[in-house]
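User: Hey, quick favor. My workstation is busy. Could you predict this chain's structure for me?
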Amino acid sequence: MNLSVFLAMKKINIKLNKITEEDYILIINYFKQGKIVVYPTDTIYGLGCLATDKKAIEKIYRMKKRAKNKPLLILASSLSMLKKYCYVNKPRNDFLKKLWLENKKPVSAVLKSKKILPETLTAGQDSIAVRLPRNDFLIKIIKKIGAPIVSTSLNKSGEEPKKDVGDLEKYFDREKPDLVVDAGILKGKPSKLVDIREMGNIKILRK
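Assistant: No problem, here it is.
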């Protein structure tokens, strides 16, 4: 494992198709300990933490200089995990299966929240944006953690998402990520976002 320390951050370099068990354990432990992790998603680099950790979520808002009225997205490893935190009836369940298991493009969905997760995450709203990542790396990590993780773009609010993690020690101000998982340059873009709280009136919020 290639491990280096710079400022308050630790960094590991990985290849998504060849990740060691040592790297998996390290990443999972950082999430479980309430740390902030930069990691590759199935779209772009994500800045995340445990979705159940209020203090870590608040740190992400400060790092990104993000308005408190803007909720954050979460990633789940399965529909069954998602149902612990969101209301999913049969029509929504069937829709999400097609959306996530048959559709090749990454899509996030807005659902009504059961209000189990911290209000900071949802900005006090009764809804939450979720995605089942098309990425075995993340599915394994979230399963091992046993809870969803926050996934917001790696950037400061209003700026373009970062495609690489080479200068993060200078990019963020006083507070920085605890762990950076470097998988090289990612050329994806943020996922499509659809609101399915009303199945008879599905809205596309981001194309």
